[in-house]
Amino acid sequence: MGITWAGKILIVKDSLREWELMSYYLGDWGYKIVKASAAKEALEIALEERPDAIVTNVVMPGMSGFELCRFLKINLTSQKMPIVICSNKNQAVHHAWARKQGADVYLTKPYTPEDLLSAIKVVTDWNYIIS
């Protein structure tokens, strides 16, 4: 019996521990996981692999998660890719800036695995409906 994937998720994390935890939970729920350790790498992977959703940090070396959102949303081939931002920053200005940059969901740490799954389901279902 083969595995039926729920979708492909690109996780952009510079922390191996966070990436492993997210991969474990999302993989357990049937998602195929693709990893990037930096936003620039994620940009290349997103354009090549066309994931069903992207989960990213805000603060990373080189390019931020906000910049990644902006680049993906101005590119015609990736502008409909849903993006979930996970961050420690919990002020209204950060949430508003994330939306302005193109993020579909902004999760504030700490969040539960169920919160992450719910966010991914919301953005992938929403993306399916408007595509």
UniProtKB/TrEMBL annotation:
Residues spanning the membrane: none
Keyword Phosphoprotein set for record: yes
UniProt keyword list: Phosphoprotein, Two-component regulatory system
PROSITE patterns in UniProt: RESPONSE_REGULATORY
GO biological process: phosphorelay signal transduction system
Gene3D superfamilies the record matches: 3.40.50.2300
Superkingdom of the source species: Bacteria
SMART domains in the cross-refs: REC (SM00448)
Response regulatory domain boundaries: 8-124
InterPro entries: Bact_response_regulator, CheY-like_superfamily, Sig_transdc_resp-reg_receiver
Protein name as annotated: Two-component system, regulatory protein
